[in-house]
């Protein structure tokens, strides 16, 4: 059996992996071959969970049309610079224009799956650990001149921003990022626009977006109960870092808050481990109303 028959046909239309060769990890033929072979053989005994396929008791492979080696670089970055529990990276490579990330299978269950069985004391212990984790994440010193970008200074992903198609950025400044989010809208370019309540809210949003802002902080970007792994009252891992990067300081809170649209009650729970940003949330509500994808 040869490697080219181990996965789907080549996707010749995607370009998101161009220039990412330096982000590969342990990109050796034997690792590639064994990983692809496992996806065709042992995976059937363990099953898949979205983009992640379990290939053994200890390994998972993340693959799919939107998986990118930047996520592997992020896992490596976090392992080298923090004590945050993340899956250990084994190898990462691109094959037939698809990225594959082979990583540790964490021994635990998602907070979403465990929630109903947890006592109040266990939940409190978990939230205390999450607060410590995200305080450490937010305390990472940003590189000089960092903008809105990945941990390696490259593009970002967020499926909630459909126009990213499938990635966006990087941006040199927070202002450039905000301007892109509102599709370059500048109220001064529309002097004849009726100054109704909608327009007043948009102008308030623009005034807030235009700053000034403190430096970006490193952000998970998709913080919800299915991306937090626990065992009993212990957090054993935070997973799914594909949306992560250097973002405005409010982005962790507002992106997690918007998870309540499909996860009712989560907006109250996040206050137990993330600081709220009330004005920024109102700014984001206006943006989501006119430029969002919810």
TrEMBL record:
According to the UniProt entry, the coiled-coil residues are none
Q: Does the keyword Kinase apply?
A: yes
Q: Which CDD domains match?
A: APH_ChoK_like (cd05120)
Entry annotated with the keyword Zinc: no
* Pfam families registered for this protein in UniProt: APH (PF01636)
Query: What name goes with this protein?
Result: Kinase-like protein
A single GO molecular-function term is: kinase activity
Where in this chain does the record put each Aminoglycoside phosphotransferase domain?
Answer: 70-267
Record's Gene3D superfamilies?
3.90.1200.10
Key words, A-Z: Kinase, Transferase
* Superkingdom: Eukaryota
